[in-house]
Amino acid sequence: xxxxxxxxxxxxxxxxxxxxxxxxxxxxxxxxxxxxxxxxxxxxxxxxxxxxxxxxxxxxxxxxxxxxxxxxxxxxxxxxxxxxxxxxxxxxxxxxxxxxxxxxxxxxxxxxxxxxxxxxxxxxxxxxxxxxxxxxxxxxxxxxxxxxxxxxxxxxxxxxxxxxxxxxxxxxxxxxxxxxxxxxxxxxxxxxxxxxxxxxxxxxxxxxxxxxxxxxxxxxxxxxxxxxxxxxxxxxxxxxxxxxxxxxxxxxxxxxxxxxxxxxxxxxxxxxxxxxxxxxxxxxxxxx
Length: 288
Fold this sequence. Notes:
Helices cover 5% and strands 66% of the residues.
């Protein structure tokens, strides 16, 4: 089966944010830009580009799609009338969330990786950004119409260096999750498919409750314990795409509460509670 391949970056300061996707499908290439602002609904811009104007290097992180160039050091180019000029570094860890064999076995499960760093400075649609966390992710998926997933990507917690990303796919009727956690200068990669069955519990995966979408996940590993609850108003989500009977709903203005406890030899380790306001990416791909 031919693959759908995605390269994307995002950053937000809580008032403005952008999510840029460069997409290579079997029959077309597309640049997609979602813009978020606290004073208006999110908007999504798309521009199709001929496949012969797409190029990617062997390391997969330097991508050129028409007038847009994306790589570890930033992004430059133009989408429609919007200029992008961003300078970044990727020096704060990385993870591949699931092994490639699982993606090869189940083509609807994305082969998903993320790299973490800093948006040093730049502009998108004349909005300036400086010294913000930046995430650069890539994924491949075959039967994308069949895929179901959710993502919680959170940083900028008050009074803490905590940052994490949780990725989950629906497999055989259950959520199979993985996570990258950085806390107190240590990183934790929880990406074993078998261990995840005992490590993660998903209570809410972007379902609508009242006027909000709710994400609620617990993690119990031998090294670290974490409880995450993330929410955002339904009106803050953009519909990025429709894939078969599913839709991708994404916001950069999620709130997140996290309770974190170190495990292992210290049985009496305290539980630490942190909050991040309007700076978290929340995404769900499911039936409307």
